[in-house]
């Protein structure tokens, strides 16, 4: 099997491909547009100019034909150009004046059989068939039927220039007895060719500018993408502390922000994992040490026959084992992603049930637990919310002095449904308030430090939150649920 490319190589190839694609995206449509537009404009201009030249030449031919006497033209016979008869000279003079006045190259007159009668500028003798007429047979048929016409194709003269011929009929009374042909140079092709070259140069310049823009754009995109690539590679290598730099471009900026959010979440999760591992190691070490100590004492007492002392050691071992079991359960509950099983839950029943589970602990400390809840139906996971409330009520009972009071209230508010647990204990020192939701942070000797973080996790899983409400002379924790999970009954 082929060895897959490393991630860095694949990302660099992707950036190179992006630059190439941008170049193609910029240049190919522009090249096609310029080519199609340039060729269309050139063809249209040439067609218009050719038609205009043909009309002009045929108009000159018509004006000349109107001055030619068809009867006299037919009297010109071979040899008249040598003897220079009067009729031949008069017609030559007329055609010469037309040629000089109009600036055309050649003017000649032919009969209906295509034989030359007078040729000014071409040099063909009288009676010779003009070979040029063979290419314009269709046009000549129209001329001999009494219409003006111009050759449809350009032809190249001996001087290398392109020419066109205009024709007009010569009449004798109502009969067409011949045609006047006027050859003119397509002089417009010089400027048209220059225009074509200028257009090509402008197109090349435009393509060069667009290519430069494409390269700069590709670099402008590749640079922030390369920074994102470097950040992604750092995160992939385990560097979760270096922040992802923000990017000014909107779309890439969104990617940078989302990557930074992901990095922050991974960093937070990694920090929590390290704290959990350290906390578990610390919390498990103490009960394991106690179990090892008391099991050793138990073995010694059993050998010595001190059964009363042995029973006490067994009780201590069981107590440490229970504490160890609670640490493991709390750790698993905090680390596990538990799916919610939502169902309608009556808020007053939820509060009374959670408080009732702590009745024995409260009675042992002579603490009174008061419950006051407005009617509401919550769409929630009842067992998980009960566990969260038990943690809050248990903390409040343990923090209250002997004979104290704990108030558990539930009320519908604009933001949703708020459940408050308040005790009359000494409160939480200000220096510790920012750390109470950190995993494994606790001030109790036998506390795991997972109760409050687990309760907040459950609240946030329901779309709510858990926070400490600052209040002088009391400790108040507020668990809120959003409106879309609570239907308040008035």
From TrEMBL:
InterPro entries: 2C_sensor_his_kinase, HAMP_dom, HATPase_C_sf, HATPase_dom, His_kinase_dom, HisK_dim/P_dom, HisK_dim/P_sf, Sensor-like_sf
Domain HAMP as annotated: residue spans: 219-271
Reactions this protein catalyses: ATP + protein L-histidine = ADP + protein N-phospho-L-histidine
SUPFAM superfamilies: ATPase domain of HSP90 chaperone/DNA topoisomerase II/histidine kinase, HAMP domain-like, Homodimeric domain of signal transducing histidine kinase, Sensory domain-like
Record's signal peptide: none
Keyword line: ATP-binding, Cell membrane, Kinase, Membrane, Nucleotide-binding, Phosphoprotein, Transferase, Transmembrane, Transmembrane helix
TM region(s), chain numbering: 199-222
Residue ranges annotated for the Histidine kinase domain, each copy included: 279-485
EC number in record: 2.7.13.3
Keyword Oxidoreductase annotated: no
Topology of this chain in the membrane: Multi-pass membrane protein
Molecular function per GO: kinase activity
Domain of life of the native organism: Bacteria
Keyword Transferase attributed: yes
Localisation: Cell membrane
The protein, known as: histidine kinase
